[in-house]
Structure formats: structure tokens, C-alpha cells
């Protein structure tokens, strides 16, 4: 389906925000830390559970807006390892049942919206029954070519890095065995620098198949990352909104993208418009003797009066 075909499905208010966006600068990947379900419930004197229930209801609204604007990747932090370990068992099992109901209740809508379901995290640590439903939902939607919706479940970024390191080392050991030599011998031929670099680490993360997020949104006003995609968000733009997750809708996703489009991304370089930026990105090293001469004849005479003034 050509891009832009589904814009007509946006409600009028969302279309009005979309009209102000640059369609060529829609991010590739938006990741959302969905926070504030408990506070949403507390403000209404409701039980936390009802906040989660309302939070689960609004996931699909945001997913559908993402799919209508052809956002390629949407990742939602739905359940962290820390949630699993530190929340009461009753809350964890309620979240699991919400997840199951969400998947069962929305696979048809995912297919209608050309959305593909995937997951990241230590998903093997989730109840068997939930894993089966997850697998079913991803198989049912596997052929879709629109937005890839990734749910981070039993996810922790540090755990992901541990898993990636273990995976990488295991691959090296397996390769050495295949070659009939020790790991040490193999590393005599290909150095450690060649075998372990940033690209290798990225390839062993759960997100190896995805681009890094361009934009991370966090709801409920907390200014922290909470062990979410730490490696992948090195250069992401971060947008924090006070809105609580159960009040977040597609229009708020579009507003966050609008804010993103007003920013200048530098990736550690210089801002466009600076003279240095226009010179290109080659490091021009002046010869050491030239620098020494410059210090001696130009900089020191200027500094001398200042230095002797004391
Ligand atoms: C934070 O709220 C949110 C979570 C613990 C997980 C997010 C879960 C959902 C949105 C519902 C289920 C998800 C799916 C995909 C069906 P909080 O309890 O930390 O809120 P608080 O900080 O206000 O207490």
C-alpha cells in the first residue's frame, strides 16, 4: 500500500495536527514509556487495577494512529522485569490477563490496520499461557507490512545487554569449536577489536532487526528512562508529557512528533548553520610543530600581560 493512503482515516482533530507535520520527517521509530495508570486511578479514587484497564484500552487508539500515518516502528514499554519482581502478585497477574485480553481482542483490528505484532524482553519468564497467546498473535499478524508494534514485556535494558553479551560470547565459542580450535587461538587470528565492536553488540540485542528509536515519549511527567532501551536511545529525542497514559491518544502522539520535528538532531556533531559544520566532518590535525609555534608566537605574548598582572 503506498504511503499516505490511510491518512483519510484520521479523525478531523488528528488530521489538523498531521497537516502541520512534514511528511518526509515522520520518525522511523517511536518508543513510549506508558506511565501513570496508578495515578490516573488514584485521582478518581479508583483501584490501581482500573487505571491499568483504562491504560490497556487506549493502547489500540495510539497504535491505529501510528498505522494511519505509516509510522514504521512503534515500541511500547508494557511490563518491565522490575514490575514483575517488585509489584504485588495480584497486580502482576492482572496485567498478564489484560495483556492476554488485549491480544485476543485486537488481532482482527491489527490485521485490519496492517499492524505486525512482535515482542522484546525475557519473554520466557512470562506464564506459559501468556507466551502461547503472544506467539499466536504474532503469527496471525506476521504477514502485515505496515507498522510493527513491539511490546516490551518482562523487559529490562540491562538484562538485554547481559543477554546480548552472553549470546555474543557463545557464538564465538561455537565458532571456535566448529573450526576445531580454542577461543584464544581464534582470537589470535581475528582480534578482539574485530570480533566485539558496537555493531556486534547491536546485532545481539533483542532489537537487532529494528532501527534505534528517533523519539522516546514518556507519559505522567517523570523525567527518567527506567531501564528502557538504554543502548538504543543514545541519540533519541526525549519528550516528556504530564498527561497520564490512560489519557494519551493518537492526537498526543502526533503532537509529540510535531515537537520532535522542531528539534535539531546532532548525533554528537555540530548544529547546521555553524561555519564549522559547513567545513565537513573531517578532523583536520595541524602539525604539532605548527601548533607549538602558534602558541609561542601568538598566544603566549597575548597571555603574558594577563599572567604577570598578579
Ligand atoms: C505504569 O503505570 C504502567 C505499567 C506498569 C505498564 C503499562 C501497562 C498498560 C498500559 C496496560 C497493559 C498493556 C497492554 C499492552 C495491554 P503505573 O502503575 O506505574 O502508574 P503510576 O506510576 O501512576 O503508579
Textual characterization of the structure:
There is one protein chain. By secondary structure, the protein is an alpha/beta fold. The radius of gyration is 25 Å and the shape is globular. β3 (116-120), α6 (128-140) and β4 form a beta-alpha-beta unit. The protein has 2 domains: 24-155 and 211-274, 3-Layer(aba) Sandwich (Undecaprenyl pyrophosphate synthetase), CATH 3.40.1180.10; 157-210, no CATH class. α2 packs across α3 (48-68) and α3 (48-68) packs parallel to α5. It has helices at 12-18, 37-43, 48-68, 81-86, 89-112, 128-140, 157-179, 183-189, 192-195, 198-203, 250-261, 275-278, 288-308; strands spanning 29-33, 73-80, 116-120, 148-155, 215-218, 237-240. It has a 6-stranded parallel sheet, sandwiched between helices. The protein has 13 helices and 6 strands. Farnesyl diphosphate binds next to α2, α3, β2 and α5. Farnesyl diphosphate (FPP) is lined by residues 34-39, 52, 55-56, 59, 78-79, 83, 95, 98-99, 102, 151, 220, 245.
Amino acid at each position: 500500500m503506498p504511503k499516505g493512503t490511510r491518512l483519510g482515516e484520521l479523525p478531523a482533530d488528528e488530521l489538523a495536527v498531521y497537516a502541520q507535520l512534514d511528511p518526509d520527517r515522520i520518525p522511523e521509530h517511536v518508543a513510549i514509556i506508558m506511565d501513570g495508570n496508578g495515578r490516573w486511578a488514584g485521582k478518581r479514587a479508583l483501584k490501581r487495577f482500573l487505571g491499568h484497564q483504562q491504560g490497556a484500552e487506549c493502547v489500540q487508539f495510539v497504535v491505529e494512529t501510528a498505522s494511519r500515518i505509516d509510522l514504521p516502528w512503534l515500541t511500547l514499554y508494557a511490563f518491565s522485569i522490575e514490575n514483575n519482581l517488585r509489584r504485588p502478585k495480584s497486580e502482576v497477574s492482572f496485567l498478564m490477563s489484560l495483556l492476554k485480553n488485549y491480544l485476543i481482542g485486537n488481532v482482527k483490528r491489527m490485521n485490519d490496520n496492517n499492524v505486525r505484532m512482535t515482542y522484546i524482553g525475557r519473554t520466557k519468564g512470562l506464564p506459559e499461557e501468556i507466551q502461547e497467546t503472544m506467539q499466536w498473535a504474532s503469527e496471525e499478524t506476521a504477514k502485515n507490512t505496515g507498522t510493527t508494534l513491539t511490546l516490551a514485556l518482562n523487559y529490562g535494558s540491562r538484562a538485554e545487554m547481559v543477554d546480548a553479551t552472553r549470546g555474543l560470547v557463545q557464538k564465538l565459542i561455537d565458532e571456535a569449536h566448529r573450526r576445531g580450535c580454542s577461543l584464544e587461538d581464534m582470537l589470535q587470528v581475528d582480534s578482539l577489536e574485530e570480533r566485539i565492536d558496537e555493531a556486534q553488540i547491536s546485532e545481539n540485542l533483542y532489537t537487532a532487526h529494528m532501527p534505534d528509536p528517533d523519539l522516546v515519549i514518556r507519559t505522567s511527567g517523570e523525567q527518567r528512562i527506567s531501564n528502557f532501551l538504554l543502548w538504543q536511545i543514545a541519540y533519541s529525542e526525549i519528550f516528556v508529557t504530564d498527561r497520564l497514559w490512560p489519557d494519551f491518544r493518537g492526537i498526543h502522539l502526533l503532537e509529540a512528533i510535531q515537537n520532535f520535528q522542531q528539534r535539531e538532531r546532532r548525533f554528537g556533531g555540530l548544529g547546521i548553520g555553524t561555519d564549522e559544520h559547513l567545513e565537513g566532518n573531517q578532523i583536520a590535525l595541524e602539525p604539532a610543530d605548527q601548533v607549538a609555534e602558534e602558541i609561542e608566537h601568538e598566544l603566549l605574548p597575548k597571555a603574558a600581560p594577563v599572567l604577570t598582572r598578579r
